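Chapter summary example.
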Amino acid sequence: MRIEIICTGDEVLTGQTVNTNFSYMSQRLGDFGLSVRWGTTVGDDRETLLNAFREAGARADAVIVNGGLGPTVDDLSQEIAARAAGVDLVLSQDWLTRMETYFQKRSRVMPPNNRKQAMLPAGAEILDNPVGTACGFALDIGKARFFFTPGVPRELRRMLEEQIIPRLLARSGVATAIRLKRFHSYGLGESHVDTLLSGIEAMVPDGSVKLGFRAHYPQLETKLTVRGADKGELERKLAPVEAEVRKRIGNFILAEDDQTLEGVILAALQKIGGSLAVVENFTSGQIAARTAHLPGAETVFRRGIVARDLGQIRTALDLDGDAKAPLTPEIAAEVARAMRQEAGASHALTVLVDLDDGADRIDFGGTICLAIATEDGTATRRARILGGREWVRLGAIEMGMDCLRRHLQSLPVDERIDFEKV
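The structure predicted for these 422 residues follows.
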């Protein structure tokens, strides 16, 4: 199936808005074996949009149009879709009622211009949008089936998953029973994991299991896409391959599918009735930020200290000592123990970073000293990461959180990683 994605909007065309919607759509379609052949970005101009729709309708089998479904004058997708298909715009009373109810539930009066969002090309199929007022729709233009989606990312993603991908799979003629299994890891590079998983696809001889990767430092996503006639066949094919992936990657798997590292940590602490306090520098407070807002964290997260240097941390915890002393795991352990006692937490995580001097550059690095303090003792880890200030910062955040995850799962916290400089 030849698929094209058309992204609309002057703000996208000029780069004022980074087009993350295109990358998300292309990746998710690829997860299901649906390859995108063309990607087009068009501004808010009627004739340019019309030409783009007609050209896509002549060369593609399916087209996803993103954006232009709002209530304002520069939202043109419905109007131009109707022109390209040679039909009139008609009012969808069902969608108009949906919008009015949407506003009423929020104790708001629907502005008159929102009525425009219920004007759809005659004969269009509605694509549900349960989290917004933009009505998605599908219709044929030329030889292609067009799917029109809102530009708001959370609305687009819901519509893509629930409405568009199932329709594309049905049109493609491939087996519609598909399972995507994802493993999230930290500490191993893409080429290393590719080598570790060599031959994994051959475990299912009919070629219905495909291995793929998505690297987004500091994590790596390893994907298994499995096709079959039904759910039972999918599970039979996937089970041995899934077990082999876990065996080969082992301790480096930090989460699976929709899980996150912070979610895994929170769940582990909740299971044992534990609590957490953190001390961090140079991380922009991201360890606390990724953890403290989660549902249920109000019973787990006790306190966080974010500071620029060791002196400020010592002052905050009323610790004596030389603030200018070289950073060591022993200092991180001292801070973690003090933080645990001060916050009354079962676990305290300290992540301290000593940066190189000078300007940011590719060989710029930092020494990371971290410690995890509990009632039973303290575990420490020291590592050095190169690659620039942001690379070090992201690495320190992920290493600290992953070591806490390992500690909670009774795994070694000092296992070497690919990103570590000896």
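To summarize the output: DSSP finds 13 helices and 17 strands in the chain.
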